[in-house]
Structure formats: structure tokens, C-alpha cells
Predict the structure.
Amino acid sequence: MVVRIVTDSTVDISPQQAEELGIVIVPLTVFFGDEAYLDGVELDNASFYRKLAASKALPRTSQPSPAAFQAAYMRLIDEGADAILSVHLSAKLSGTYQSACTARDTLPENVRKIPIDIVDSQNISVSMSLPIMQAAREAREGLGLEEIKVHLLDTLARTRILAVLDTLEYLKRGGRIGGARAFLGNMLSVKPIVSLKNGEVVAVEQPRTRSKAFERVAQLVNEMGGIEHISVAESGEEVGQQLVQVLRKTYHGELPIYKLGAVLGTHTGPGTAAVAVIVAK
Amino acid sequence: MQEQTPHTAVRTQRLRRISVFDGQDLKKAMLAGAAWLEEHRDAINALNVFPVPDGDTGSNMAATMQAAIRDIVNSDETSAGVIAAKIAHGALLGARGNSGVILSQILRGTAQALDKKQTFTATDLANALQEAQRMAYRAVIKPVEGTILTVVRETAEAAEKSAERGDDLVALVQEMVMAARQSVARTPDLLPILKQAGVVDSGGQGLCIILEGVWRYVRGESIVTAGTVSTPSSSSKSPTLLEQLEPGVKKGRVQIEEEFGYEVVFLLRAMNQTLDVEKIRQTIIDMGGVSTVVAGDEHLLKVHTHTEWPGKILDYGVSLGSLLDINIENLQEQSLAYAAESAAEHASDAVPESPMTGQIAVVAVVSGAGFEKVFSGLGVSAIVPGGQTMNPSTEELLAAVEAVNAGQVILLPNNSNVILSAQQVPTLTTKQVGIIPANTMPQGIAALLGFNFEADFEINCQAMSEAAKNVQTAEITTAVRSAQIGGVHVREGDYIGLVNGNLTFAGRDMARVIRETLERMNIDSYEIITLYYGEDVTREQAEETARRIKEQHSHLEIEVIDGGQPYYAYILSAE
């Protein structure tokens, strides 16, 4: 059985990695004023943050259109897929999941010959990519759709993400601040730690400095229990390295680092670093 | 009459011998104690070890005593046990500051020992004092000798010995006062910081003064109560203490009557004779009317007065003309209602009345408009105003805890003087209350920043306590008197720098004092300094100060915040 994995550009893996694993990425769009860029295709991490620094107006984001999903699904069907597993960022943060569902549901009958399962990961970026890459490997190994999906949901349930932001401005202006609005009245400068719960942003803690924030994140990671997989996402190398150094004090296994894409960048801003953990069973 | 004098010499100076007191005696004794303390309030405040303008023991103990007598001042109750219980209850709720709380425990212990007793003897009182001193020691986690604890203990010991000797109440109280005076005098020998500062312990002195007030009442007691024996040598002709002390006692009572009794207001229209405004005013004053205002002319005037006997005043008015717009208010009810109202008002003053999480709310004691904004911005559900000297009563803390919309409440005392009052709160409410040992407002802020929205109540109490500990607080203020503490010479009017409550530097030049104080707190080992400037400092001055600090310590991040606090020019946290 050939199962193909589809996701969106907020998965924050490089085009090369995607190709190696056979993952199809449907990109979101980032707007700077009137200019539209396909996330991860026309705008990568470095070019996004350069533009952000130079731009007066804040960028906006938009989910892929159903047509984009339909095009991706149809291509995979033509290539001989027996089933499609389409996994996307939290439906509470974006209309992407909804767009994918609409795309599937409006595919013409004669085209829609195979099962297309669409999953709201309730996660994003590195907390989504770890489980998705695992699913892609399983698909390569020939596992069936149901089995891969069960594993995927199980893994997603055990995935946690913690992010340290420089400021809440981007979350606030992008409208995704969610539970982190508890931090908003603060007059003191802090480096907020946020997480995702049930697909929404939640407040965790507000340390005064970035180093304190990373120390706290490392402590919280340690408290999670056994680590099955862990990875870091960074808006830029400086913050990423800082976080990695702190994590390395207690964790000595593999620690891959990914770059936050333009969509993530739009909603979190510069100076952001996050760590995702799949907690062992 | 001094320490070495044999007991017999002291006996001859007694006027009376009294075996038994009842509830009314206890009430009058307490009123006398409260009044005498009120007179000495400022003197006791001046005994503050640190030459800083807060932590006023005299005011705190006086406020506690006023709360203690509030419910008994108009009471006819004759049972000593009932009176004592009311006193203890009032003190418990109204206790302010550490000394106030310990005093309330002393009263509580006394009340427990007198429970169900209609009257009490010298022996009963001696036993009550033993209970009182035990309760006082239990109230403090780390009892320190050379404080009010030592004084109540040594007084209780003297009372025990006196009772064993068969002394009556008058002799016993006298022994207590002698012992208390000696104990207070010895406190500098037990607590070095007192010796350095050249003062005796303020809490101990406060207790001693209260006992002296009681003694003054007891000494001249001539009221015949059940079982009283008048010795022939007593001069029945000399004025009774009540009469003698009437001016003194009345003075105390008058101060109380400012808030109690009735407010009587009416218009008086002349009928058969014209009105003599001056004469009417004087007559009402002579009748015991307080805060009397009589305004108008010979045809129509308005009377406003406070009195315990509204009928008398009205009768007088009726004899002069016709009364209109008569208004009588119960002042005690009014002031209680006002207190409850303003406590509720302040409890809902903080911006988010909604708790931090569905279950947990935070209540903080805060002083300074800017600080209030910081705490509100951090999600505090209720702010208890600390006032000039950061000493809210247990009652005020309790009101805030009850008012917030959560079953689990975390309390930030933000001053070491408030911690004992705060610790009374969990026993007075069914809500789950956690007290964070934050001794300063910056520690309270750090605790709030350490709040974890994903964790439960227990974990948060722990985490917040940890966070509070990791903050160093420096305070810059002006010395209210000269002192020498820990090798630092302080002249009145000097700027002084304190680090975590310890005096570290003093001088005439503010900039230098700030610099030196920061050096002494190893400022370089921290990352971020938050400088909260007080109500007498402008933003420009504060920013200049921050700039200078940054010049000396370039790696530090410095944040300047308007704290608006009274007395302390700068409060600074280092983390």
C-alpha cells in the first residue's frame, strides 16, 4: 500500500528533507503589503527576517486555497497513491485544516478514488514535524493508512512544545495570542514562555531575561519525563544556539535544529526559539 | 518602688485589695490599657530600630488595641470570659504588624484561659498569662529573645510567683508591671541590635505600657464588686481611681467616642424665646457632646454633635424651641459599614477581578500607585493597600481573600511586617490560602512572574516562593533619626541604603549612597535591575540615576518603573 503524506509549510522542514521523505508540502502565503510570497518556496527563514527588519508594516499570513490542496491531492492520485494522510497545523491557529477538508470534499467523484484522511495536528512547526516525519518513514516502510494514522495520533498526543519569545507583539497583532493574553498587562520586560494546549497558545511563565527563560524551559523539559525525540526551532542562529547550549547541559542525545519559517515568523517575531519533545510512553 | 524593695514595702502603697474581677472590670481595665497606649503611641514609634519611617510598632499596637476594645466599649456584659473572648476576637481581626499580631495572640491566650469564667482571681490571671505567653511564642516561627516575647514571658513568671504568694489582683498587676519594666530594660542585653541602636524593644515597651494602663485603673479601684475586701488602712476619702483617672480615662474614651455613640443633627427653630447660639453650644459641650457644631442665629440654628445620650441632647433642644430635620446615626455601625465597604471597594480595585487561572487568584499588599499598576498588570485579582507604612490588618487581608472569585488564593504580603498578619488568614477562611514569603514588593513581583499557568496550586506556591527568594531588594530612603547599626553611622536626614532589609550605607549624597549600596549587593553578579522610583522622585531623576548605574556597570540591563511608593526614593530589585 502506498500511503503519501501531505502537510503545509508551517511544518518548517527544508525542501530537501521533504523530498527525501516523500512529503508533499502545500505552502501558506505571507503578505508584505501587497506583495505575496509562498512560504518556504519564495520566502525562507533568512529572507523573511531580513524583510521583516526592513519593513515598516507587519506581514500577514493566509492559508492555502482549497484549489492548492486539490492540485496536490490529484497529483498524488495520478502518481499512484493508495491513500493520502494530510496532516496540518492546529485548526485554531489557521484555516488551513478547513481548506484541506473543503478541497477533499469538493473533489469530483471520479477523481476521488482513494481515502484521504485529514488530521488537525493541534500542533505546529517542530511539534508537528517530528510526528509527521515519523509517519513518512512508516509510509516508506509500507505500513497501511490506518496503522500510520493510529501511530501518528498517539505520537501527537505525546508531543509538547515550549517557545520563548522576545515579545508578545507579534502574537497579539496576528490575533493568535490565545491564553497568552494573561501576560499582556505586564509593565515589566520579560521573555514569555508559551506553549500549545488543545491547539491553542497558552501562557506558561514570564521570566525576566532570555537566559532565565531558557533555563526554565530546560527545567520544564526535564520534568516531562523520558524523551523519545526532541528538536529545536530557531528564528535565528543566535537564539537557537543559546537554547541548545542550555538543553545540552542535561540532554546528550540527538538534537536537530530547524529554522522557523515565514508564517511562524510572522506570528512570533524575531528572537524566538522553541523546543518540541515527544515524551516517551 | 523599685526592684530590690522587699515585697512588704510595696504592699503598703496599695490602696485597695481586690480578690475578684468580673467582665466590667476587665473591660474598664482594657479601656485604660488602650488609652494609656494611645498616649504613648508616638514615643513607642520612635523606638524603631531602623531609622526608617515605617514598621510603626506604637501605631500598630494601638490600632490592634482599638480593634480589641471596639466590641466591648458599650457592652454591659458581666462575664469576664465573654468580654475576654470579644477582646481577643477584635484583636485577631484588627491586628496590624508583627507586634500587633503577637499582642492579639497574648489576648487570645488570656481569653482561652478565662473561658466560661464569670469572674477571675489573681491565680486565674496568672494562669491566663501563662497561656498567653505560650500562644505568643507559638505565633512566631523563630522566636527571638529580647522582644515582646521575652517581656510577656517574664511578666507571666512574675505573675505566677505573685499568685503563689497569695497576692490579690492589685498586687499581682503591680508585680506584672514591675517585671515588665525590668524585662523591657533588659532587652538591649538580649538583642544586640537594640543596644547598637540605643533603644529598648518597641513591642515589649508597648506591652509594658498597656499593662501600666491596666495598673493605673486597678490601683485606685474602689468599686465594690463581689468578694471585694476593703482594708481599713485604705483611705476611703481619697478620690477613687475612676474619678481620679476620669480625665485620663475619659480622654481615652473621648477618643473612642469620636467613632462611637450617636451623631445627632437637627434644626432648632425659636418658639417662645430667641436662641443664644454660644450658650447652646456650651451647654451641649457640657452635656458631653463631642465635635459639636452649632451654627445659625437667634431664630434658627443647626446643631451637630456626637454623644452617647442622644435623648438628653434632644430633650434640651425641645426645651428651647421646635426641632426639625432630626437625624440620628449610630456612629459605630457607620464606621463598621464604612470599613467593610472600603475593604470591598479596594478588593475590587485591581484591574482584573478574574483570577490567574480558573481556580487560583492572587492577592497582594501594595503601596504606591505605580506599584499597584505593575501588580494589576501582572494579573493580581485584588490589591490590599499597604498605606504609608505597609501594615494592613488581618481583617483587610481576609476581606480581599474572600472577595476574589476563586477558591484557591495566593497571598503576597510584600513586607516582613505583614507576614504574621497574613498567616492568620488561612485559619479564618474556608478557602485554600497559600502565603508566599515575599518580604518586599520586588520579591512579590518576582513571585508573580514565577507563576506557572499550567501548574496547580501546590506547585505554584512552591515555584512562587522560589522565585521570590531569588530576588535581592535594595531600598534607598532618608533616615528619620540618627543611629548606629552594624558599624554604619547614620545621621538624621542622611540618605540610607538597605539591602534585603539590612542597613548597609549612609551618607549625604544620594548618588554616592546608591552606588555604595549597589556595590555591597554584588550588583555585577546579576543581569537585570529594575529601578522603581518613589512618589517624590521624577522620571527624569530616576532615568539619570539609571544612566549613572549603567555607566558603572555596563553589562546590566536596567529598567526604570514608576513605583510611586511613599518614603522610599528608590526600591530596586536585582535578578
User: Anything to note?
Assistant: The domain at 3-28+63-157 of chain A is CATH 3.40.50.10170 (Rossmann fold).
